[in-house]
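Cross-posting from the modeling subforum.

Setting up a comparison between two proteins and wanted a second pair of eyes on the formatting. Protein 1 (sequence, then structure tokens):
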Amino acid sequence: MSASKKTSFNLSIITKIEYFGFEKFSRDNFSQELQFIENATIIPLTDEIADIAIDLRRKSRVKLPDAVIAATCVCHDFILITRNEKDFRDISGLDIYNPFSATHG
């Protein structure tokens, strides 16, 4: 992974909410996470993303947050980086990269 990908990345607003809503962060960890997220561009929910998410939900049983995250990637031609391939694998037009996968070495 290049240095720029380690320091600059995109996040769906839903990912930000899920990430920071994780109840197990201690105060110290939360501060570190806030510093980490400062490097991200937060992609807001737009009508275009909502329309894609609606279409994804109508075509598959994807949960609403996952549909919005996937729609954000599809809309902006991003690759979804996730360890949770299972919930996204049936979404057409979505490129997925799992850095923890044995096939990605």
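Protein 2 (same layout):
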Amino acid sequence: MKENAKEILQRTVQALCVDTNNVEVHTILEYGKAANELVKKANEVGADLMVIGNSSISEAEEFLTGSGISHKVMHKAPCHVLVVK
């Protein structure tokens, strides 16, 4: 599973084709609860901004259940969070 995850991460980064000359970008493979790991890593690297994708559940469902990763990250992150749909 780890090798498969690393391969998918590599392909994703290559597919983005983003000019990162003026931006520090971290591609990290971690295991655990996603929201907790994202917040922990943001603290470790001193992130200024986190850009994360929104899950497929509705905003109302995410708010009511508190189960959405983006919701948890927004409330626990040490920096600004940009949630992309």
